[in-house]
Amino acid sequence: MNPHKAYDKFFNNKKNLAVFLLLIAILQILFLLFHTSKFKIPNALKNFVVSELTDQTNIKIENVFFQFPNHIEFEKVSFLDEGLKTRISIQDLSIELNTIFPTTIQDFEKVRVKKINYFSLESESNLKLNNVELLSKSDHIRIIF
């Protein structure tokens, strides 16, 4: 084997190699730029997902953000009763996922909620929970208040 001709096949395709390396460099730069950025989910996509997951129209979601690669934030989620009064209000919901495309509830690694309000229709009392955190383990879910 001639050592001078061992790598000639790489040098024959210099243009393809340069394009490939440039593409890899651009992808790395984009990854570093978008790694810490939050993207707002468009309302049309948000409404489509809610309508596909539930057959009810009594869920109101405001401002959903996605942070690459596995973090979703909801500013406010409201569950309404039939009279369109707020029944349950969740503020600052944050979900960390194990995977990019979750398929089950076990793919949720951590769920944090800053404030949960439950408005009772039967009585004047309301239930308020602050700073709730759910941690998913392999066989159970741990709740921290």
Main features:
single chain; elongated; 145 residues; 2 domains; 7 strands; alpha+beta
Q: Can you put this structure into words, describing what you see?
A:
The protein has helices at 8-12, 14-34, 43-53, and strands at 38-40, 59-67, 71-80, 86-97, 108-119, 126-136, 141-144. With 145 residues, it is α+β, with helices and mostly antiparallel strands. The protein folds into two domains: 3-34; 38-144, no CATH class. It has a seven-stranded antiparallel β-sheet with strand order 1-2-3-4-5-6-7, covered by helices on one side. β5 (108-119) and β6 (126-136) form a beta hairpin. The longest helix is centred in the N-terminal third of the chain and has 21 residues, at 14-34. The chain is elongated and about 90 Å long. 2% of the residues are buried.
Regions with little confidence, pLDDT below 50 for 5+ residues: none
- How many angstroms separate the termini? 70 Å
Number of strands: 7
- State the order of secondary-structure elements, H for helix, E for strand: HHEHEEEEEE
Q: Report the β-strand fraction as a percent range.
A: 35-45%
The outline comes out as elongated
Kindly name the structural category.
alpha+beta
Question: What about the largest sheet?
Answer: 7 strands, antiparallel
Q: What is the count of distinct domains?
A: 2
**What would the average pLDDT be, to the nearest integer?**
80
Rg of Cα set = 24 Å
Total count of helical runs of at least 4 residues:
3
Strand order in the sheet with the most strands = 1-2-3-4-5-6-7
State the helical fraction: 25-40%
